[in-house]
Specification:
The chain is 23% helix and 34% strand. The protein is of the alpha/beta class and 366 residues long.
Length: 366
């Protein structure tokens, strides 16, 4: 009888022990499931924070501020900007890592963006944080303007025309304080000084017409990378002449451009790039605000031609090709150095240009 009582006493603790083990095992399973869920949620939050950081970075890189003179404002070293995006916000900080002596050359930056994922239902504290970075060049909306009209191919055929070449920056006439230093009226290679200049009004620095060097040398002085510009370095808004468009876009014409407006006004604005020759003809008036860049010659054959900004021809002389000499057959040609319209035309080229293969998605541990 005593043995039977001992067996009964052993069964109860065993049952309790088994139940305890099962409870512990189930609890462990629940804990593991909870941990896996939290890990999954955390991984998703980190991915979303990465998206927030990248969105803030791209927004910052694509934003350019201009002053009242339309000069692009270069970001200050170490200045921070908060950018609100869908799902949270990003703090973006640019750091200058290379500052060239030539202020016209691009500065090199590393731009860091820290994304904070915020779910309003869980409070104001971020649920996840991620930092990314991008190396980039910062470019100004300016160019090396040598004169109101720079003809690396020369300009000697002046027919019976008249007009003006203004090296004095006319921006100061209507926007005081925004003008750039005055320039020569014309810049041509040796022996390419135009005839019949007595019919033209010339102003600017002395000498009004500056001669010197070969066509290639003058084209190189402009510091315009002609080959890069016409082979993908600049993205065009138009590939045919944007008659009447005043949105200051970029127009790139492959080959020759022959424009005949008939009568009336042929107006346009922005950057006009013609890879070969430009012939503007007809009984109309040609009026352009901005920059005209031509690989070969320009034939000014309309009744009247007006450019406010800057004109450069003969740029493919950089490659060793010889361009025909430019001529003026129309009645009037006026080219005014206007730095405001140069900057306005180049506005789309200002700002950050990301460097290839330099995006970093783990900057915090870099």
């Amino acid at each position: 009888m005593q043995g039977m009582r001992r067996e009964d006493g052993f069964a109860l603790p065993m049952t309790i022990f088994v139940l305890a083990m099962v409870t512990i095992m189930l609890s462990a399973v629940f804990v593991r499931v909870q941990m896996d869920r939290r890990v999954a949620e955390s991984s998703g939050d980190v991915v979303n924070a990465l998206a927030v950081a990248e969105s803030g970075l791209q927004t910052y890189l694509g934003t350019v501020n201009f002053d009242a003179c339309y000069r692009a404002i270069r970001p200050l070293d170490g200045d921070s900007t908060r950018i609100n995006v869908n799902g949270g916000y990003a703090w973006v900080v640019p750091h200058v890592i290379q500052k060239p002596a030539d202020t016209l050359l691009p500065w090199k930056y590393v731009v860091r963006s820290t994304g904070y994922l915020v779910d309003p239902t869980q409070g104001s504290d971020p649920q996840a944080v991620r930092t990314v970075a991008q190396f980039a060049y910062w470019q100004r909306n300016s160019m090396e303007v040598l004169a109101a009209f720079t003809a690396a191919n020369g300009l000697v055929q002046m027919a019976s025309s008249s007009g003006a070449f203004y090296g004095e920056d006319v921006t100061g006439w209507w926007l005081p304080g925004c003008e750039d230093p005055n320039l020569p009226a014309l810049r041509v290679p040796n022996g390419q000084r135009p005839n019949n200049l007595s019919r033209y009004t010339l102003n600017g620095t002395s000498p009004r017409v500056r001669e010197g060097g070969s066509g290639k040398w003058v084209a190189d002085l402009t510091k315009i990378d002609w080959v890069e510009s016409i082979t993908g370095g600049i993205e065009p808004d138009y590939t045919s002449f944007p008659l009447g468009s005043m949105d200051f876009g970029v127009t790139i014409i492959e080959g020759d451009l022959n424009i005949n407006f008939g009568s009336g006004w042929g107006m346009g604005s922005g950057i006009l790039i013609v890879t070969e020759d430009l012939d503007v003809n007809g009984s109309s008036w040609f009026y352009w605000l901005g920059v005209v860049l031509v690989g070969g010659e320009i034939e000014w054959d309309t009744y009247a031609n007006y450019v406010r900004g800057a004109v450069v021809s003969g740029l493919y002389e950089q490659t060793g090709r010889n361009a025909d000499v430019g001529d003026v057959d129309g009645n009037y040609l006026y080219v005014y150095h206007d730095s405001y319209y140069v900057r306005r035309a180049l506005a789309s080229l200002a700002g950050f240009a990301p460097m290839t293969n330099t995006w970093i998605d783990n900057w915090a541990s870099y």
